[in-house]
């Protein structure tokens, strides 16, 4: 190995990894669509124009119009905003709560706190995720915020478990023992030695959870428990399309493609990152 | 092995108790007064009071919880507020659709995933591997309800091979019923099959790299023999976990798919109950699904112990 | 006819040549020792004979097994050859067996795939073979699973399946490296006996000259993918024509120069008194709490100022647990540990930082001892955390500089990452990390066990020199008696959590008193003894 900076060799490896490049480009495309939608959309996505309804794609309306004559492309742009925001915050909640819990449980392995954290995780896993999400939004009312909470709750145990498992194997490593011989506290070792060494794993899982959250948000919105009208969302666009599926299949196709491409992009990026972070695979390069 | 299973059983029973507490808290305590929650803001105060008495809401919380659990243990889920019939009857009827649908989807998913995963792992980096990986990558990204709509569009509306929804009932005969469940099962199974195939592949690749696989080859087993006799059973252990998780995912995923196909299953019941604020039905369906998940988890543990002799002796 | 003859073998993996121009022959009933350090290509030679080379490998040259040219065989024919004509035994018995199948099943499999034997016949042969390798019927029925067996027993199962069809050639790749010395001696005896009785040819691959010296008829010494010297064992060792042979030999028997002994002070650097360490055992039965497992059982000893004390024992004897307790990584169930007369361990938050700074540690694994994300500068200065007023600025630079030069590295190494160093260099950095805070005692937990012999000799020299110059005391923990003998003044022998014997190193090794020590010393392969023995 050379003394070249690790960051630069990482970048070079990343650019040579086709799955990562494609995934990254697709993810970036949708983030860009979402950001652009704040300043510009081809049409006002909330403006009804019944005269124009159910148009198949034309030069003017790239993805056609829906049953109220709204421009589908504009709606998808604004929908990306909702999907990404909900998924981002939900995964963020999962990480911010789950990772410290997992690190704490690993640092105090076998203690009562560890036991409580792990049993709590099992409990959340015992609920079919979608069901509890529906239950929460049903009791607290539908809306983007409750969707975030419902999806976020399921991310907590995912990250807690991952962090704990990875941290436990690091706690037995000699460099952590050396840090303990150097008198460092468990909290400090967790922050200084454990967290940086599990960060890769967390990032990879983060992208995967992000894609799962987008799917979950779409599902909630599809049953009417996500973001509420007039804000467009991919899931609700599909719900609208369902009754008209024989009449206007394009209404179902485009939002579906938007979801698939976004999730596909995130998953490809996650897989790519996993390969790139894996020292065994990188050495072979 | 008995100690291991007994331990798992106790731990899962505790989970069930904890889950029932959570459900009780979310459904009975969080909404404030369940009776007025169920009847809405504009309800007649007298009617609300009547419902309160009917639900036993005047009793203290711990007693209400215990009463609910005692009822559950006897199979008494209470009486639905909207349907005015015992919830157990409603559920019994709906389970006959949701459970077969779940098992059908699980069987499809396994039947697709195993060969695909094994093929991909045994011919790593070949064209077959790359196509399986590409297909599963796509399969994971497709929302099942969207896939369901596309299936309806193609096979029900255009080709007219299947009906677009509804369920003839088991009285109409086995095959018509199975036929009605086929599109929903495919829609449910496809994304799960993709996940399972990927897990199968990576688990098998890990196993193929084990030292004992080299031992097997050194004994004179061909690549294929070594794979069949030594790798598969070891690779199955993590796959079992995923199958267990998928059961609960499919059971719950039914909520949405049943809505797409207008199937009168548990999920549709739960969903309708939620929109009608029938908390008694909602909590019954939820606890039933949690119970199912826990039973399946236990079965997976049992399968673990059968697949892995080390567990028959060891602790967790 | 030789059972194995290799000529002009060359192997490339992804274009890198890993073997050049290998020539070897092995006759029936003979043992050929292939010796070399890691990366010398000895395992690749074995895999070439089995035709189980990794993906992307290409080979040329000629390999004949019992007169059959391997190049003429297709894959099905090679499968027929493997297991029937050639048996292979691996280094790691813990992972070489399939965990979900019984031992009988796995031994019988060799028989069933090569002969048309019925299940019953194959199991009968399996039974016979397991008896043959010393796993008797009463204690080792065929339906036992590998996880019930110890490492040595598993290695016997692996041997049983390799010899089930009485192959003409047996290849053993470091078969005893993962085993304890007493088990190693038994396995080597077993192999030797099988070779003589079955008239097999055995190719024994090892890094340990002492192992082959007492066993092999012929030796091939490998380095960087080539055979540097080959011939009858005795001739090789007496003539030592090649410089690498000489270097390997002297490194294997290396005893570092040790300076004068320091006068023991009044207060011992370390005093361990009646230390007890229990582990909670996992429950087998839900309702009965099992008794705790006593890993360290009333152990007492002292280390004086400047003294090097060895702690030897086989795996599971409790020596690592004792080390963890001494380092205050785990709490104690009884007794106490004093450093310079002050109580070092206590339950709860552990020792006072300034006291802790008097004792440092070097671990076995040169690859796992460092956080891969930090530069050497940060790695070696970690113990300064223990000092109330850590050095800064130029003083810090001076200390880093001194620690690195003490261990034979240069000050420019401070800005590198750990992956830029070899295993031996990493172990030097680990020593620098221990030294930087100027401790009185360093615990060396198998600190040279993972290193090749030539690197090991250098590190031992370094340690001996540092101890003399800086008046350091060592607690040197190892399973390797010859290393302990080379570097320590006094030795403790541990078995089942107890110290069974202690005394001056030389006298303990020359004249062991406890039966266990006698067994250990007798089982340890010795180059000198092997060469002094009369030719058979």
From TrEMBL, chain A:
SUPFAM superfamilies: MetI-like. CDD domains: TM_PBP2. GO terms for biological process: transmembrane transport. It is a multi-pass membrane protein. InterPro entries: BP-dependent_transpt_permease (IPR050366), MetI-like (IPR000515), MetI-like_sf (IPR035906). Signal peptide: none annotated. It is found in: Cell membrane. Residues 80-270 form the ABC transmembrane type-1 domain. Pfam families: BPD_transp_1. The chain crosses the membrane at residues 20-43, 82-105, 125-154, 198-224, 244-266. It comes from the Bacteria. GO terms for cellular component: plasma membrane. The keyword Transmembrane applies. Keywords: Cell membrane, Membrane, Transmembrane, Transmembrane helix, Transport. Belongs to the binding-protein-dependent transport system permease family. This is Peptide/nickel transport system permease protein. It comes from Hoeflea halophila.
UniProtKB/TrEMBL annotation, chain B:
GO terms for cellular component: plasma membrane. Keywords: Cell membrane, Membrane, Transmembrane, Transmembrane helix, Transport. CDD domains: TM_PBP2. GO terms for molecular function: dipeptide transmembrane transporter activity. The chain crosses the membrane at residues 12-30, 101-121, 142-162, 174-197, 235-257, 285-307. Belongs to the binding-protein-dependent transport system permease family. Residues 95-300 form the ABC transmembrane type-1 domain. Pfam families: BPD_transp_1, BPD_transp_1_N. It is a multi-pass membrane protein. It is found in: Cell membrane. This is Peptide/nickel transport system permease protein. InterPro entries: BPD_transp_1_N (IPR045621), MetI-like (IPR000515), MetI-like_sf (IPR035906).
Automatic annotation (TrEMBL), chain C:
One of its GO terms (biological process) is peptide transport. It is a peripheral membrane protein. Gene3D superfamilies: P-loop containing nucleotide triphosphate hydrolases. The keyword ATP-binding applies. GO terms for cellular component: plasma membrane. CDD domains: ABC_NikE_OppD_transporters. It is found in: Cell inner membrane. The keyword ATP-binding applies. Residues 4-249, 270-521 form the ABC transporter domain. Belongs to the ABC transporter superfamily. GO terms for molecular function: ATP binding; ATP hydrolysis activity. This is Peptide/nickel transport system ATP-binding protein. Keywords: ATP-binding, Nucleotide-binding, Transport. SUPFAM superfamilies: P-loop containing nucleoside triphosphate hydrolases.
